[in-house]
Amino acid sequence: MVDLHCHILPFVDDGPKEIHDCLEMAKTAADAGIIHLFATPHHLNGQYNNSKSVILESVLECNMHLQREKIPITVHPGQELMIHREIFISLENDELLTLDDKGKFLLLELPSWEVPNYTQDVVYELLLKGIIPIIVHPERNKGFIEDQNQLFELVQEGALTQLTAGSIIGHFGKKVKSFSEKIIKHNLAHFIATDAHNIGSRGFCLHEAYETITKTFGINQTFYFRENAELLLSGQQIFIERPVPIRKFLGIFDF
After folding, report:
1. 8, 239 in Cβ contact below 8 A?
2. What does the pLDDT read at residue 202?
3. What is the mean pLDDT of residues 47-60?
4. Within 10 A of 53 (CB to CB), how many other CB atoms are there?
5. Is residue 250 predicted with pLDDT exceeding 50?
6. What is the share, in percent, of the chain residues with pLDDT greater than 90?
7. Per-residue model confidence as pLDDT tens digits over 125-183
8. Rounded CA gap, 99 and 161, in Å?
9. β-strands 80-82, 74-77: how paired?
10. What is the rounded distance in angstroms from the CA atom of residue 123 to the CA atom of residue 105?
11. Reduced to 3 states, what is the DSSP secondary structure of residue 98?
12. Nearest to residue 31, comparing CAs of 58, 62, 9, 1?
């Protein structure tokens, strides 16, 4: 399997604090069936700054350790960028790191409590520059939960989304799990990833998430998510299903 979102690099953010912990995470990921994962440290989230050059160097060093320890997994560079008004200045300064440094897909994080009013403008401008934003863990965003049509509008604009594996299996509560299922049902999700930070409470439960998706939506839905991650890794065109608006029926029931 391919994991597009993971905090495995040591010393850089709220992931592992030592190289030993990083290697333990890699072993756990490999045991869980993951053979490729993207190291995506937080950048400009108010607590951590991890620019492109820092991440590339850290990923190179990480892969050297993995080869030395014969851990059968490859780490790819990425970045979890917090949306901000000066994002295009950061882009011009070559601080931003797209997935695998290919200049096409960028993991975009929103504040957990809101959808900033300039989000659609940022998505539009990124797309004009040929960069496709992947909005991470929208199911855990209070703004999307309260106004679910905002997510549809961004996907319709051209943004993609990535759900967290733990959300799908209930690690973040029933409300988040239910919203995750609704996002999938309305074709508003394109990838599933772990967002792993450790081997415990925030670990590699990707296989369990795919099993849950298969039971709820059928095996074809699981294939859709797995293949999209593989296609992104190999630089091919991913599958995008037509998004469906999340509407309210009689102000009470969703459909």
Report:
1. no
2. 86
3. 96
4. 11
5. no
6. 93
7. 999 999 999 999 999 999 999 999 999 999 999 999 999 999 999 999 999 999 999 99
8. 14
9. unpaired
10. 12
11. coil
12. 1
Residue 113 token pair? 């409590």
Give, for 48, the enclosing helix (H) or strand (E): none
pLDDT exceeds cutoff 60 at 244: yes
**Where do the DSSP E strands lie in the chain?**
2-6, 36-39, 42-43, 74-77, 80-82, 105-109, 132-136, 160-164, 191-193, 248-249, 253-254
Is residue 38 within 8 Å of 229, Cβ to Cβ?
no
Instruction: Say yes or no to pLDDT of 200 above 70.
Output: yes
Token pair for residue 44?
């400009």
**Token representation of residue 80:** 């979890």
The pair of three-digit structure tokens given for residue 50, joined into one six-digit string: 């991890």
Dihedral of the alpha carbons of 124, 125, 127, 133, in degrees to the nearest 10: -80
| Pairwise CA distance, residues 66 & 207, whole Å | 22
Tell me the three state secondary structure of residue 47. coil
Residue 254: per-residue pLDDT: 47
Q: Which domains, ranges and CATH numbers included, belong to the chain?
A: 2-254 (3.20.20.140)
Rg of the chain on CA atoms, in Å: 17
Residue type for position 175: K
